[in-house]
Design a protein that fits this description.
This protein has 155 residues and is mainly alpha-helical. The protein has 5 helices and no strands.
């Protein structure tokens, strides 16, 4: 049990570092886009949000790959299973139940699920903050009477 918890914790820390890097990249993208003039505020907002979501989805995919590599290294999944699928199901807490970890590594699935839940929560917080900051920026630069203008927020 201690080995399972140690391995799961190590992989979780690696994924937290990956997510931290992705968060910095997503925020940098949003800040860079926020400094540019926005003749079409709604399209600008959509572009910032799409770029942020894509960066975070990439991070989640890399994190799932890290879990699947872990499963391969420790032999946590049955030999006939697809490791990426197994990791994806655990990470997203989908839990089909069609593939389960081998008995010696049965704690690794719930640890991946716990890691996934935390990373999705973190991503949600990042998306919300980017949305708020982008709208705030667009309100500061938008002409009165246009979408997101500071004057419109007082209505």
């Amino acid at each position: 049990m201690v080995i399972q918890l140690s391995v799961g914790s190590l992989i979780s820390v690696i994924n937290i570092m990956i997510h931290a890097l992705a968060t910095v990249a997503a925020v940098s993208i949003a800040r860079g886009a926020g400094r540019r003039p926005a003749p079409w505020p709604r399209l600008h907002l959509m572009g910032v949000m799409v770029a942020t979501v894509l960066m975070l989805m990439l991070a989640h995919t890399v994190e799932i790959v890290v879990w699947s590599l872990c499963y391969a290294l420790v032999g946590a999944a049955p030999g006939s299973s697809e490791l990426f699928y197994f990791a994806f199901v655990n990470y997203t807490t989908l839990g089909y139940g069609d593939v389960t970890p081998v008995r010696e590594w049965r704690l690794i699935g719930p640890m991946a699920a716990m890691n996934g839940i935390l990373m999705f929560g973190w991503s949600t917080a990042v998306l919300f903050e980017v949305l708020l900051k982008t709208i705030e920026h667009l309100g500061a630069i938008a002409a009165p009477g246009t979408p997101f203008s500071a004057a419109d927020r007082g209505r």
